[in-house]
Write a structure and sequence with these properties.
Peptidase_C92, alpha+beta, Papain-like_cys_pep_sf, endopeptidase fold (from Nostoc punctiforme), globular
Amino acid sequence: MSVFYKRLFKFPMLQQKIFPGDLFFFLKEKPHFSNSNATASEDKKGSTFIDAVCSSAVAESLTIESKINHQVFHVGLFINETTIIHATTFHGVIKETIMNAIISTKPSIVEIYRIQCSDEQRQKAVKFAYSSLGAKYNDIFSPNCINSAGQKSYYCCQFICEAYGRDMFNPHRLNFMENGKILEYWIKYFDERNEPIPQGLPGSHPSILKSSKCLNLIKLFNISKELEISEEEINNKSNSNLNTDLPYICKQSHL
């Protein structure tokens, strides 16, 4: 086991454990989008896509908007302390270690949250995640979970909303605009797929999802470009609703 892996999962500062159904969010340190002339298909590493996602986080209300973090670009679900299931841009819904996801995606910050819900809801979400393995990526963000190829599919936060139920999280309508104009990236992105831009349709966004009242932060890791990890201590007083003692059945989950 690498030092990187040990530092991430030994939890040196906090004894808070990760349980099946907990969520992780990936954040960029300084998201910045530039309306370059590069087409969406030319961005093989996905960095432009990530920046465009960060720039598109606009809430429906001022109350939610004040809580939006424009660094957030991805979300997924833990099935045990070291393994996740998430909807990825290039491979669809997959299972892998959180370490592998960090290495391939290179976030600057990883935040881990616990959803305040019943154990039954949590178990149901994990089972849904397993049953969705192999589903494709919803590249056109359609509300009916069908991608441009007509396949059953999910984008990252849509996958979480389907797992736990959309009513658990803040409502959201898709936004591809910044400063009142559709971002050039999204115009090219949907032109390449011969699809209309779904501006204003029901959907979700990692930043909007993360601002939901049902989520409580339990762990925060800063990650350097060299993949050195440092964990920040979380002030549990700010998480007054946090249930650190999950039911026995959840703790013993071996799904």
